[in-house]
Amino acid sequence: MTDYTKAIGYQQLTSVPTTTALTVPAGTRMALIQAEAQNVRWRDDGTASTATVGMRLFAGETLRYDAGQIAALQFIQETGTAILNVSYYA
Predict the structure, then answer these.
(1) What's the number of domains the chain is made of?
(2) 3-state percent breakdown (helix, strand, coil) of the chain, nearest 5
(3) What is the pTM of this model?
């Protein structure tokens, strides 16, 4: 496992009612993504997720993403108003 020790950015999305991509800083190799308030769905294959299709990230869980192209991630809330907190690392 690679250690990522240099934090290079943070982003908070306060609502994701439509499919939303992240604003990924240059040099990012890993992101910690936390869903807050509501569950979200995500995909990283270039296809938009929907409220019922995609990988589910439960509210309160954190996804460590370092397996693919972080800029290809797209999120959408299942219901209500989800919040995404994202920390980026090089």
Answers:
(1) 1
(2) 5, 40, 55
(3) 0.91
In a domain, 13, yes or no: no
Domain for residue 88, yes or no? yes
Query: What value, to the nearest 5°, has the Cα angle with vertex 34 and ends 28 and 36?
Result: 145
For residues 57 and 82, what is the distance between their CA atoms, to the nearest angstrom? 11
What's the whole-number average pLDDT of the chain?
94
Percent of the chain with pLDDT over 90: 91
- Of 50, 42, 38, nearest in space to 68 by CA: 42
Between the alpha carbon of residue 68 and those of residues 30, 41, 81, the distances in Å are 9, 17, 27
Domain that holds residue 64: 25-38+48-90
d(CA 38, CA 35): 7
